[in-house]
Design a protein that fits this description.
Layout lengths: L2 H31 L2 E3 L1 H6 L8 E7 L5 E2 L5 E7 L4 E7 L11 E8 L5 E8 L8 H9 L11
Parallel strand pairs: 1-2, 5-7
Antiparallel strand pairs: 2-4, 2-6, 3-4, 4-5, 6-7
C-alpha cells in the first residue's frame, strides 16, 4: 500500500469514527428526552422504568376523582376500558377536566404503581379527542363516541 493510500484510508477511518460517535451521542440524548405515549393496558402489560417520563392517555374513570380539601392534590383513575391506572396530581386541573373525558397526563410511574403526573391535559372541545387516545380506545375494543375533526 502506498503512503498516499494509507493517508486516505486513515482519513476515511477518522471520518467514519467521528460520524459514529456523533450518532451515538445524538441517540443517547434523544433517549433521555423522548416521551412515550402509553395506555393503561400498556402499563398493566409491562413494567415501565420509574425514572422514564411518559404520557398516559385514556378516559377519566367514573367515580374515581378524589380531591384533597386542604390542597390542590387530586387523584383519579385513567381507563381505556380494559384496565385502570390511578393518577396523582398536585396542581390546577384544566377547566374541561371531568369524569368520562379524554385526558393525557405527563409524568412517571412510582414504586407503588401510581402515576405521578406533573401536567394534565384535557380535550379542548366536544368533538376532538387526542389521536393517541382514540387509537388506544379502538384497540381496546371501546370505540369512542366522538370523531376527530376532518
Amino acid at each position: 500500500m502506498t503512503p498516499t493510500r494509507k493517508k486516505r484510508l486513515t482519513l476515511v477511518g477518522l471520518i467514519v469514527l467521528g460520524v459514529s460517535a456523533a450518532t451515538v451521542v445524538a441517540i443517547t440524548a434523544l433517549q433521555d428526552n423522548m416521551m412515550f405515549f402509553v395506555t393503561p393496558s400498556d402499563v398493566h402489560a409491562q413494567t415501565l422504568p420509574h425514572d422514564r417520563q411518559i404520557r398516559l392517555g385514556g378516559l377519566v374513570a367514573d367515580g374515581t376523582v378524589s380531591r384533597d380539601p386542604d390542597s390542590l392534590a387530586v387523584t383519579f383513575g385513567v381507563t381505556d376500558g380494559a384496565h385502570d391506572v390511578m393518577v396523582s396530581f398536585n396542581g390546577i386541573l384544566p377547566d374541561l377536566f371531568r369524569e368520562g373525558q379524554g385526558v393525557i397526563a405527563h409524568g412517571f410511574m412510582d414504586d407503588s404503581g401510581t402515576f405521578q403526573a406533573h401536567e394534565v391535559l384535557a380535550r379542548h372541545d366536544e368533538t376532538y379527542m387526542p389521536p393517541e387516545v382514540m387509537r388506544a380506545l379502538e384497540e381496546a375494543g371501546h370505540p369512542p363516541e366522538v370523531s376527530m375533526p376532518q
